[in-house]
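Protein modeling request. Please complete all fields; requests missing the sequence field cannot be processed.
Requester role: graduate student
Desired output: 3D structure, token encoding
Chains: 1
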Amino acid sequence: MKNIKIAVIGLGYVGLPLARLFSTKYPTIGFDMNRKRVDELTGGHDSTLEVSDELLKEAMEKHGFMCTTDIEAIRGCNFYVVAVPTPVDKNNRPDLRPLIGASTTVGKVISRGDIVVYESTVYPGVTEEECLPVVEEVSGLKFNTDFFAGYSPERINPGDKLHTVEKIKKVTSGSTPEIADIVDNVYNSVLVNGTHKAPSIKVAEASKIIENSQRDVNIAFMNELAKIFNAMGIDTHDVIEAAASKWNFIKLSPGLVGGHCISVDPYYLIQKAQVYGVLPRVMSSARRLNDGMGDYVANQAIKQMNLKGVTVKDARILLLGITFKENCPDIRNTKVVDIYHTLKEYTGNITVYDPWADNVRLEEEYGISLTDKDEALEKGKYDAVILCVAHREFAGIDIRSMLRCKEGVVYDVKGVLSRDITDARL
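Delivered output (426 residues):
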């Protein structure tokens, strides 16, 4: 395939870094339906902080990268990459509407001989059984005769400046052996560590879904251990450090499992497995356990307050951090919100401070407002402080000085604070 021109549909945490990278080798256009997002990027700034202002400017000025909401602007492309979210609904069932919408968009502009590659995380079969029929219907073209497809699952880790998109080894696949080679070559041309070419689209889809499901199950095991050892009065982190002295022990820590990957993707495989008559007990149990950790943390903090004689009703509590992970502005599916809501049943005096989160988005998504730094970090103000996220800005804070009395509680969700200032940790 010669003279490749790429359109990346969806300019979020996955699509933008990928589009920026592709633009270093190929003419590339980024498409997104969100006018505010496109205007922001065209103005030279990425609020997700996945692409620096310098790299974004270089892509636009040096490589001709552009972002648009105009579908006509991508009509002349011949290599379409779909990188839209794959969320779940309130009942944790896969919501394919973003994928169907993106497939409709592709169907309106795709031409004979073109290739569409999906990056969105899905259960095996979605690309060929759900997405491509939409492209066929809208375009009037026949799959694997008039146009072709591939699947290359995203592996973006929000906030990770080490495993950036160009350094990630990506899985690729195609709807025919020839197309698989083309897709593989396109990705290989911009990646430092190359690719792994899967034998089929379904294998590639399955490989992605188990990456995050495996993490979910492993973390759930550590969270279960934390509950057991906390009940026994044993420090879980001490146990992990001791066990990690064995050469083949996999060292993980307990914690909150939020974000748009580990806490969401397993539901896609869980539902698909049930269609085939398989009840995925381990994955389902892991999801239930991890989804309940926010409530567990809140109740553990309340327990510590009761033990120290701190009145929980109307107590003043500070939550440090509300993003789903450290040093990242991503608030999608953050489990700190669960801590907040459980505590809200006892007191309305909850302060949330996070230097990374966007207050407007937080209010829109969760109805929670941030407090500015000076007001939030006042000394002698709180009955309890809970370190929820290990942002680097929190490292130098004198947390105990913010307590109203010596009986106040400091609870460390992340296990990063010094022992002499904490009352308990997960």
